[in-house]
Design goal:
alpha/beta; TIM Barrel; 8-stranded parallel beta barrel; 14% strand
């Protein structure tokens, strides 16, 4: 069975954020991920991890002005200094939290912008980030995101992401393979797992039911089968990553909603 990490930005929302660590541990999770740590001191987050026997396996670099709708800076010409400052902050948090990987969001393509210029900016920023992260022993991840959830997002497809990683050639630059986004944009998910996992370029996987982004056992994807595929391919290629549970519990923020919806996980044995 894959190793699962609870996404604390989406799960356990009936609790305050800092109390979600203990809630996840009580349900048997041994790792967590979330969008951003920057509202909290790293020492406080590190204490929550240690107190609950949890590993931090992923978080995002600063995305720009999230509340104003920004979803990353990496592809935006003229924002390079802000991107670099934010990424340096992310690496400091990764060091404090023992987190091996940081996700860099590509950003929204400005209307009318020349895609070639955005691509060049994106690749230059990623190459710089990967070099800096290598010195700290961290991986940099990029994630294709479907344009229905984030209209205008610069990176949408698995093949695009892998071409970028190959073009830059940094061994610590990898793809965050979210099966929810993959299904919406491309489909044929099991085949893509078999195609990309053995390349060594997949640093992390995430799951959610399609189309409503609820529990993995709700919707059109057969996640029990996909987990078997991950296990099979991982055994063949020695992939030892985590599968992040990045979904919205179907019962929302009702007390116990996340725990009540974990039957899919308990059923995996």
């Amino acid at each position: 069975m894959p190793r699962f990490a609870a996404n604390l930005s989406m799960l356990y929302n009936e609790h305050s954020f800092l109390d979600r660590f203990s809630a996840a541990a009580a349900d048997g999770f041994r790792a967590v991920e979330y969008l951003f740590p920057y509202a909290f001191e790293p020492q406080e987050l590190a204490r929550r991890l240690a107190d609950n026997g949890l590993q931090q396996v992923l978080f995002n670099a600063p995305p720009g002005n999230w509340d104003a709708g920004e979803r990353g800076l990496a592809c935006l010409p003229g924002r390079e200094a802000e991107f670099r400052g934010g990424f340096a902050q992310a690496l400091a948090y990764a060091e404090a939290l023992g987190c091996p990987r940081v996700h860099v969001m590509a950003g929204l393509a400005p209307q009318g912008a020349e895609r070639a210029r955005l691509q060049a900016t994106y690749e230059a920023n990623l190459a710089w980030a990967a070099e800096l992260a290598a010195g700290a022993g961290r991986d940099v991840l990029i994630e294709p995101i479907n344009p229905r959830d984030i209209p205008g997002f610069f990176l949408n497809r698995q093949d695009e992401a892998h071409r970028i990683v190959q073009a830059i050639g940094a061994p610590n630059l990898k793809v965050q393979m979210d099966l929810y986004h993959c299904q919406i944009v491309e489909g044929d998910v099991a085949t893509k797992i078999r195609q990309y996992l053995p390349t060594g370029r997949v640093g992390h996987i995430q799951v959610a039911g399609v189309p409503a982004r609820h529990e993995p056992d709700i919707g059109e994807l057969n996640h029990a089968y996909l987990f078997q595929v991950i296990d099979e391919v991982a055994a063949e290629c020695a992939w030892a990553g985590w599968v992040g549970c990045e979904y919205r519990p179907a019962r929302g923020t009702v007390a116990g909603a996340t725990s009540a919806g974990l039957g899919w996980l308990r059923g995996l044995g």
